[in-house]
Amino acid sequence: MAALTLGKYASKLPLWRVSGEPLRRRPHPKARNRQFKRAGCVVNSMGSRFSYTLDSSLDSVNKVEEAAEQLAQESGLDEDQVFQITMAVREAAVNAVLHGNAYDPKKKITASFENTGSSLVICIGDQGSGLDPSTLPDPLAPENLLSGSGRGIFLIRSFMDEVHFKLLHPGTELTLIKHLDSTQKRA
Amino acid sequence: MSMKISTRQVDGVTILDLSGRITLGEGSVQLRNAVRELLGKGSKDILLNLADVNYIDSSGIGELVSAFTATRNQGGELKLLKLTKKVHDLLQITKLYTVFDIKDDEAQAIAAFTHA
């Protein structure tokens, strides 16, 4: 699959072998860079990807949730995994709308969804004041256990394989990644 | 799809039969208002039947906790009845499974209220 991203460079690159897989072309440095950025929701050079820019509303949360569910279902994940991804993405969208943009009608949230073939990559961005995850209290600590809020990021981290925070100045972008096993790699 | 709540009384305990989703903007506010109304009327023994709650998010989990603490602060008890697997799993990973008194059988749940 990597060869598909190489274009005109493919024939000029040395062959390499990856853990028993057939020989393939080593990606051009620029191609590797493209793939790295794609995981960070900057560039999409291949695969199925779709994105939205939405108002800061609960309708948007529901739309993002539906898109996540569709992506997860089409990726061959089981019911529990679909539920977990859908919930994690919903929590991220709620954070963007509620805590990030604070329902400000002038601010938008962005949501992108991609099946890279090896992972599902979902990015949710807002235009708020920025979220520093290190400042979030631990919802499992005894003193926080009976708190009425503060479990969203914890659930996201529980359900996804990777969660990355990026400050956008203004705003925050969360990148949620779920790795697909070999039986689920349907790009 | 919003949440529906129906209320019934059994042996001095108010049972709220919830169905649908308890999420931000959908069931959370309804649940909060229903519990507040009961506490305001002096109904302090509350059993939340979650058998038909198919989805709950962090807002809904927070609302369950708030309902629990509000009831306890009024000198009452709030218990949970018949969790679906998803809700059960969520309460386990958030370590709330041991905070709530959770029952699978309605009669046993009613009997477990100390004031009933």
Low-confidence stretches of chain A: 1-40, 42-46
The CATH class of chain B is: Alpha Beta
What portion of residues of chain A belong to β-strands?
15-25%
How would you write the strand order of the largest sheet of chain A? 3-4-5-7-6
From the alpha-carbon coordinates, what is the Rg of chain A to the nearest angstrom?
18 Å
**Structural class by SSE content of chain B:** alpha/beta
Large-scale geometry of chain B: globular
Strand content of chain B: 25-35%
Give the oligomer, counting copies of the same chain as homo and different chains as hetero: heterodimer
Terminus-to-terminus distance of chain B: 34 Å
Per CATH, which architecture of chain B? Answer: 2-Layer Sandwich
CATH superfamily of the largest domain in chain A: Histidine kinase-like ATPase, C-terminal domain
Question: Would you tell me which CATH topology of chain B applies?
Answer: Transcription Regulator spoIIAA
pLDDT averaged over residues of chain A:
80
Q: Shape of chain A from CA axes?
A: globular
Task: Please tell me the overall pLDDT of chain B.
Answer: 94
Q: Helix and strand string of chain A, N-terminal first?
A: EEHEHHEEHEE
CATH architecture field of the largest domain in chain A: 2-Layer Sandwich
Separate helix tally of chain A: 4
- Helix/strand/pairing class of chain A, anyone? alpha+beta
- Tell me the number of strands of chain B: 5
